[in-house]
Every structure is written in C-alpha cells, then in structure tokens.
Specification:
Layout: H1 2-23, H2 27-57, E1 59-61, E2 68-70, H3 74-81, H4 101-105, H5 108-134, H6 141-153, H7 156-167, H8 175-180, H9 193-220, H10 226-233, H11 238-266, H12 270-276, H13 289-295, H14 300-321
Antiparallel strand pairs: 1-2
Amino acid sequence: MSTETGRESRRSGALVSVMRWMENLSDTQYAYLLLIPVFVLLGVVALYPLLRTFELSLFAISADFSSTNFVGAGNYVELFTGGKNRYLPGGTTFLPEGFGLGALLNSALVVTIIFAVTSVLFETLIGLGQALILDQDFYGRRWIRAAIIIPWAVPVVIQGIIFFLMFNSNVGFLTPPLADLGLLAPTNTLNDTASATFIIIVADIWKTSAFMALLILAGLQSIDRGLYDVAKVAGATKWQQFKLITFPLILPTIGVAVLFRSVQAMRVYGIIDTVSSCTVVPSLSCMVVATFTTREGTSAAIAFVTAAIIGIVVMGLIAWQGEDAI
C-alpha cells in the first residue's frame, strides 16, 4: 500500500513540476511548445520523403529495379548537362539549350516557370477583381458566389477534356478566332509548343481564379467597416480608400494566396496529362518538370531539384511579406 502511495506522490510531483515549468514559459516559448506536434508530423510526412528522395537521387536504378548503383552527383550532372534529355520525347530538354523563343519553350523548366508566373499573376488579378465585386452588397450575391466556385470544383479530367475540345484544330470553336489574332497556330494547335503553353495557362486561370477570389474575399471581409466611414467623412475617393485602406490590409492575405498557388503551379501535371491522353498519340506539345519526372527512369534528382526550386520560391515570398507572413 505504501509503495502505491509513493508512486502516486512521485507522479503528482512530476506533473506539478511540468505545470510550473510551462507557467514560467514566455508566450513565444509556449507557442513553439504547442507547435512541436506539428513539426513532428511535418517531419514524418514531408521531411522524410524529401530526404529519401535525395538518397535515391544518388543512385542509378534500373527500370525493373533489379540493379542499383551508387553514382553520387552523377544524376545531377547529367540533368544539368543534358544527359537526361534523351528520355524526353520530341527533343524536349530540361534546361534551355539557347536563348531563342523556340529553345526556351522547348525547356521543361522554362515552360514550368512561364506557366507558374503567368498563371499566378493573372489568377491573382482576376481573383482580386472578383473578390472586390463579391464584397459589395447587392441582390443575388450568394448565387454569384456559388457560380464562381463552379470552375474550381470541376475535376481536372473534365477540365482537360473541355479545353481539348475547345482548342482542337479540327473541332475547337476558339481556335479560328484566336489564330486570326496570332495567339494560336491555325493547324495542329495542340502540337505547337507556344499554342499548347497558352492553352494550359488559360485552362489553369479559368479553374483557379475562384480559389484566389475566395481567399482574398476572406481578407476583405475581415476589414473593419468603420475605417471606410471615417474615410468617407474625410472626403476620400473610392480609389483612395482602396489604395490606403483595402489594399494594405489585404496584402498579407494576397501573399498567402500567391504562396499557395505558386507551389501548386510549380507542380502542374494533371491538365497536361489529361489533354495529351484524349488522343491515341499524345497531342499536347507542352512538357513541364512534373511530366519529366514521370518519363524519366531515375527521376529522383529531378524531383529533388524541383523541391529545391519550390523551396526557394516559398522563402522568397515569405521574405517579401516580412513579419506579416509569420
């Protein structure tokens, strides 16, 4: 009996010591303490696969996984010197072999960057415009909000088929007018790299602008409406209210939205694969980094380089936001 009582007292004493230790923590230290489970979870689901990918990138693995040879940085050397380009169809390369338009659009990395920058830029502008409209009080606002979400809810397979049919040079009704404007090739549209890149960017903007709009709208509705009343009394115009109140207050929200979309855009694959799969012979002449990783036998090096690029983009966006990103 005395032994059990001693154990209970030791447990109670340890619990009291832990509670006192936690009470003496600063707010910052306590916040980091609460984040420890999150860090552990991220380490399991994110950090370990990344480290495992880096480990695999140091080996040359046969297609049937029957042999594994340590090559060190050999995969990276081949990747950046063009040794891996033989695995890509149509003469596509990972890095550009020149600075001409054709050479740039023939590079999977350059096309990925062009896609990410262009699509995220226009999605942010269009999403901001939609959010500003939806933030106003007008009849049928709830229905308009629901309608805007529809493209975002469309599965990527359906999205790919829709844009394949719209821009197919034989049956697509958008190809002739856009070809007259010089935006698309009049024939074999999906086999032209510049046209295919344009189509994929338009498809992504159509689908994901709603995502940006919803995030920015959440930031808009968190603004204290009393600020606008004060601005009206002071004689501020609508533009001055947007410039001095709205935009500075939603800038952190825009930064977070751009961060999410940039990471997703750098990993684009589904829409390209879907459009290419609509015919017996892959018809979409648009290769991105994610496509490269599915075509190459030893793709761990490519995946790790892509993760490094995404990490640099994320760090850059966080540094741009400063303390508002924390």
